[in-house]
Structures are given as C-alpha cells and as structure tokens.
C-alpha cells in the first residue's frame, strides 16, 4: 500500500515496467481513465478491463522529471517527463504526461493519467 504520493508514483512506474496487468491494477483506482494526445479516452471499470500490459511498444519507462502542478490535500496533479526504452534497452522516445493521484483513507493511487506525447 502506498501511503505517500511518491510511493504511489513509484508503484505505478514499477507496475508499468512489470508489464503485469495485476500489478498495474494494484497501482490505480477504479474506474481508471487514460487519455491519449488526440483526446481518445480509455475508461476502465475493473482490472479485467485494462489492456494487456505485455503489448506495450516499449521495454521500460524511466521518470526523468516530476513536478507537482496542483494539490488539494487528498488530490495531487503531477506533470512528468518519461524516457522510454526500446527492446534493445536503448533510449527511444522522450514523452510527457500528467498523472492525477488521490488518497482514499491512508492509501494513494493513480486515478487518471493523460499521455501528452513526444517532446
């Protein structure tokens, strides 16, 4: 259980890199929303609705920068820059996104995220 926002960011990043649907599901609140740069939205009511994480077009993701944009106590909005790596573990894309985290009782998780595309 992530008891701080940074622990939740780290858990979600580890889940993305694990390529495990179960681990990803543990790092987000449901329903979960993922938005694409073109405005397309993925709305996931339950863990079984999440896409197959093993099909991601990158081998891993590293956070390069993280900035808190806004907070209201139980909600935090982060702006992030990620380095994506290809199948040979070479840097491929530098991308940006937003993650909205919120706390329920003592637990923080990602509630939604917006992929903003390549930099």
Task: Describe this entry's structure for a reader.
- The chain has a six-stranded mixed β-sheet.
- The chain has helices at residues 5-18, 21-26; strands at residues 28-35, 41-44, 60-71, 75-85, 91-104, 107-118.
- The model has no long low-confidence stretch (mean pLDDT 96).
- It is an alpha+beta fold and 119 residues long.
- It has one domain: Nuclear Transport Factor 2, Chain: A, CATH 3.10.450.
Q: Which keywords apply here?
A:
119 residues, alpha+beta, globular
In short:
The protein has 119 residues and is of the alpha+beta class. The protein is 17% helix and 51% strand. It has one domain: Roll (Nuclear Transport Factor 2, Chain: A), CATH 3.10.450.50.
Q: Ranges with pLDDT <50 over ≥5 residues?
A: none
Tertiary shape:
globular
CATH class: Alpha Beta
Question: Could you give the order of strands across the largest sheet?
Answer: 2-1-6-5-4-3
How much beta, percentage-wise? over 45%
Reported by name, the CATH topology is: Nuclear Transport Factor 2, Chain: A
Q: What is the rounded Rg?
A: 14 Å
Q: What is the distance, rounded to the nearest whole angstrom, between the alpha carbons of the first and last residues?
A: 32 Å
Q: Work out the number of β strands.
A: 6
**The biggest beta sheet, please?**
6 strands, mixed
Overall domain count: 1
| Helix count from the secondary structure assignment | 2
Average residue pLDDT: 96
- CATH structural architecture: Roll
> Could you give the order of the helices and strands?
HHEEEEEE
The proportion of residues forming helix, as a percent range, comes to 10-25%
Overall SS class: alpha+beta
């Amino acid at each position: 259980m992530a008891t701080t926002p940074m622990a939740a960011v780290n858990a979600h990043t580890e889940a993305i890199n694990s390529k495990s649907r179960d681990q990803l599901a543990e790092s987000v609140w449901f329903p979960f929303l993922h938005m694409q740069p073109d405005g397309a939205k993925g709305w996931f009511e339950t863990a079984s609705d999440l896409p197959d994480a093993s099909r991601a077009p990158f081998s891993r993701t590293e956070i390069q920068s993280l900035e808190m944009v806004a907070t209201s106590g139980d909600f935090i909005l982060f702006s992030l820059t990620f380095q994506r790596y290809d199948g040979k573990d070479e840097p491929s894309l530098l991308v940006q996104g937003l993650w909205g985290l919120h706390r329920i009782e003592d637990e923080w998780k990602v509630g939604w995220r917006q992929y903003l595309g390549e930099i």
